[in-house]
């Protein structure tokens, strides 16, 4: 991995080819806190990319064959970043490695399920919110993290020249399923118990 001093980018060696992931800083522009953070994020992306390449080599598969595996990993990391105030109770690595179905629907369901597991802890830390407000603000927070993660996955896949055709369509489908999942979370179907209770109200 190498950082060029004139134009900031991260280089990753893969199969004899050098991939360049450019950061926001431009030539001759003084380094700022924001640009340094962007460089660090690019370095993290490069590390994720290299890890995914190593993992795919071990399993005789490639990122091109399983791009949604990368989407899942970066989305879960985005969720983790969004939940800094809550101590995670489940390992991101466990959640990533324990699954093998990377279809758009399965990937989306895993992301929504993983994130909504933290809702009770979020409610405990925000007693000032009524139940619906808590659901809405929590869903917004989770979606922010998911979109950040999916965007980073797209950047990595674009650097590999595989963000096209079925790959891009599968990512779009995954995002659509994620949005549907959070919409259902915001407006859960009433349970049988609640329906009976409401029916008994005079």
Helix amount, in percent?
55-70%
Strand portion, in percent? Answer: 5-15%
Tally of discrete structural domains: 2
Distance between the ends: 70 Å
Main sheet: strand order: 1-2
Largest sheet: 2 strands, antiparallel
In round numbers, the mean pLDDT is: 71
Low-confidence stretches: 1-31, 56-61
Evaluate the radius of gyration: 20 Å
SS class: mainly alpha
The total beta strand count reads 2
Helix-strand string:
EEHHHHHHHH
How many distinct helices? 8
Could you say what the CATH architecture of the largest domain is? Orthogonal Bundle
| CA-based shape | elongated
Q: Any overview of this molecule?
A:
The chain is mainly alpha-helical and 202 residues long. The protein has 2 domains: 1-59, no CATH class; 61-196, Topoisomerase I, Chain A, domain 4 (Orthogonal Bundle). It is 63% helix and 6% strand. Helix 2 runs parallel beside helix 4, helix 2 crosses helix 6 (131-159) and helix 6 (131-159) runs antiparallel to helix 7 (165-186). Mean pLDDT is 71; it is low at 1-31 and 56-61.
Topology:
Elements: E1 9-14, E2 17-22, H1 33-58, H2 67-82, H3 92-97, H4 104-116, H5 119-125, H6 131-159, H7 165-186, H8 192-199
Brief descriptors of the model:
single chain, 202 residues, mainly alpha, Topoisomerase I, Chain A, domain 4, 2 domains, two-stranded antiparallel ribbon, 8 helices, elongated, disordered N terminus
Quick description:
By secondary structure, the protein is mostly helical. Helices cover 63% and strands 6% of the residues. The protein folds into 2 domains: 59 residues, no CATH class; 136 residues, Orthogonal Bundle (Topoisomerase I, Chain A, domain 4).
């Amino acid at each position: 991995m190498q950082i060029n001093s004139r134009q900031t980018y991260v280089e990753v060696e893969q199969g004899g080819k050098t991939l360049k992931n450019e950061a926001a800083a431009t030539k001759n522009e003084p380094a700022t806190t924001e640009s340094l953070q962007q460089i660090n994020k690019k370095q993290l992306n490069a590390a994720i990319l290299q890890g995914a390449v190593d993992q795919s080599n071990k399993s005789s598969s490639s990122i091109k064959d399983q791009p949604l595996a990368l989407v899942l990993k970066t989305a879960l990391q985005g969720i983790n970043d969004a939940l800094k105030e809550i101590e995670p109770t489940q390992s991101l690595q466990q959640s990533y490695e324990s699954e093998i179905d990377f279809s758009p629907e399965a990937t989306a369901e895993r992301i929504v399920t993983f994130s909504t597991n933290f809702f009770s802890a979020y409610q405990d830390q925000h007693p000032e919110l009524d139940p619906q407000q808590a659901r809405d603000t929590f869903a917004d927070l989770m979606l922010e993290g998911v979109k950040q993660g999916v965007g980073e996955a797209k950047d990595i896949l674009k650097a590999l020249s595989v963000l096209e055709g079925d790959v891009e369509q599968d990512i779009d489908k995954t995002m659509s399923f994620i949005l549907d999942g959070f919409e259902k979370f915001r407006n859960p179907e009433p349970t049988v118990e609640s329906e009976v209770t409401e029916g008994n109200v005079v």
